[in-house]
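User: I'm putting together a small comparison set for a docking exercise, and I want a reference complex before I start. The sequence is below, and the ligand is 3-phosphoglyceric acid. Could you produce the 3D structure with the ligand included, as structure tokens?
Assistant: Of course. I'll restate your input first, then give the structure tokens for the complex.
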Amino acid sequence: MKFGLKSIKEVENLQGKKVILRLDLNVPEENGQIKDDFRILKLLPVLDFLRENGAISLVISHLDAVGESLEPVAQYLNQKFPTTFFKDIFSEEVQQKMKSAENGEVILFENIRQYPEEEKNNEDFSKKIAALGDLYVNDAFPASHRKHASIIGVPKFLPHYAGIQFEKEIEHLSLHDNPERPFLFILGGAKFETKLPLIQKFLSKADKCFVAGALANDFFKAKGWEVGRSVISDIPFDRSILKNEKLILPTDVVVENGQGVEAKDASLIAVGDKIVDAGPKSLQQLRGLIKEAKLIIWNGPLGFYENGFNQPTLDLAKMIGGSVATSVIGGGDTIAAIETLGIQDKFTFVSTGGGAMLDFLLDETLPGIEALK
Ligand code: 3PG
């Protein structure tokens, strides 16, 4: 495997082995129900593999917020196979269970962020967790950009392996190393200040780099165009990037103003306009680029997806899904779009990572990968 990592599939005898399995079960919940099981479904292969090979899976995961509970996830998993849930990983109950657990059992612990030591990467905390297991597996790619105890601390104290989805993420997100060409990189969403280095990097790696969403607004402004009330970051950057012929910006956009919503050329924005989406001519531009491309990497929506400006993003998803190019896509809104359309299987690979996908594309590694080396 890339980076010389060892896969959990290489371990010969897992019978009765206690595996500290770090997963990313950080899924949206509402009233105790899971709203989107995309990430969980991608982690069933590693759980099935460990169960079938007689390992005892000790599953650790986080949820974004400290007070949130993984209990709904335990109930969800319990419908697939028996899953025991413990609220406190360090309780006497857990110690007892470690003595009686049967081969193939799955045990899930409550949100690891309930312990402040997790985010501080406290060494004693990592040691205490490691003491429960015989080996450690990271199948939490979306959390592997975090320098947290369960990602980089615990593997120091146990033989460590990459999980099944983790390996797939690395393989597919590395396809740009030696890309099929033309290679089209599409980046949308917001946060120009954090995504600018990625744009700069892919302007040299890709053949075309289409920058959309709020990210494009900073470029429009740098061209000297009016951007009205649109979201911009206003960070200073080297304007020579605008002369790079690989950089493609939307030719037209959808704006919201006192009159309602309308499409306009990006160079004709008025003071009262707020850019909220890509326009129809921009979609035509994308159609042409997608038709030619052999490799497409896409992350981030074309507009304010969560505010209902989603049609151009859905159209883009359909175009990429229908193309013959190798396609690697990811990001929360991007995944929401393909789930709305039910076209998950039309892409070569759908990454489970949001921030981790972007960090990996930029840095070509993650703290969680380094910890497994
Ligand atoms: C994600 O959803 O991006 C990962 O689960 C990481 O979550 P975090 O941003 O709360 O660390």
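The longest strand covers residues 18-23. The chain has two domains: 2-167, 174-363.
User: Thanks, that's exactly what I needed.
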